[in-house]
Design a protein that fits this description.
Distance between the termini: 23 Å
Helix content: 40-55%
Structural class: alpha/beta
Low-confidence stretches: none
Number of strands: 10
Strand order of the largest sheet: 1-10-9-8-7-6-5-2
Radius of gyration: 18 Å
Order of helices and strands: EHEEEHEHEHEHEHHEHHEHH
Oligomer: single chain
Mean pLDDT: 96
Strand content: 15-25%
Number of helices: 11
Largest sheet: 8 strands, parallel
CATH architecture: Alpha-Beta Barrel
Shape: globular
CATH class: Alpha Beta
Number of domains: 1
Amino acid sequence: MTELGIEYQTVLGLPPVEFVHLAADLDCHHISMKVAGGGGPYNPYDHPVYSMLDDVALRARFIAALRDRDVSISLGEGFVVQPAHDLRDEAANLDVMAEMGVTRVNAVTMDPDLPRSFDQLATFAEMAASRGMTTTMEFAKSLTVADLPTALQAVGHVDRPDFSLLVDTMHAARAGHGPEDLIMLDPEFVGYIQLSDHSLAQRNPVYRDDSSDRRVPGEGELPLVQMLAALPPVPVVGVESPMRSLAEAGTTPSECARRAVAGARAVVEAADEIRRVRALGCHT
C-alpha cells in the first residue's frame, strides 16, 4: 500500500512544528522539509521566516514533534545548484538534515552550465551518502535539467546506486512526458514521486508563480492516475499541491492540505488498482 506524505510547498510556509501536527492530524506520517523557510513571495499566510540551522531550540521542538506524532521526513529539500554557489557549502545544512532523521535529500539545478551542474550533483550525492542519505534530482521546464532525457544523462553522469530521479507529475507532463514515457523508466532510476495536478499548459507567464497555485490531485487536466500507475511503486508519494488562490481567499492551511490529501488518496487508490490488474494480466 502506497503511503502518502505532504510536501513542504503544499503548506505555503507553515512553521515546522505546526506542519508536523497538521500532517499527523490528516493521518499522513511523512513530510518533506527544508532547513530554512517561511517568508518570501509565496507566503499568503504571512508565516514567519525560520531557520533550523540557526535556531537550535526550534530544531529540538521539531524533532520532538516528529517523534511524538510518529511523523518522519521523507525528503529533505532546499538544495539548489546555482552559478555562484557551490553545494559543498551545504555541509552544515546536510548535518541538520541528518540530525532530523532525513534519509533522502533532493537537489535541483538552476546553473545554465550543464556539465558543472552534473559535477555539482555528483559532489552533493557523495556528501549525502557520507551522512547515510540517498539523493534524488528533480527536473522541470523551469530548471536547467528540463526534461527526462537530460535527467537520465545526469543519472548516468553521477553513476551511483544511491542517486536517482524525483518525478513530479506536473513537471513531467509539462515537459511532454506522459504515461507511455514513464512506464519505460527503469525502476532503479525513480527514487521519489511528487503527486501534483494542474492545467497542462502553463497559464501564468512566470513558471514559479504558476506552479505555486496548483489543483487538488485528480481535479486538474493531467492524466494523473495513469501517470502514477505508469511509475514504479515507491515507499512514499509526496502530495505537492500548493493552492495559493485558495489561501489568498481565506482557506486555512489545514483545509487546503485536507483537500489535497483527500484527492491524492483517491488518485493513489485508482493507480494501485491499475497496477493490480496489470500484475494479474502478467500472470495469466
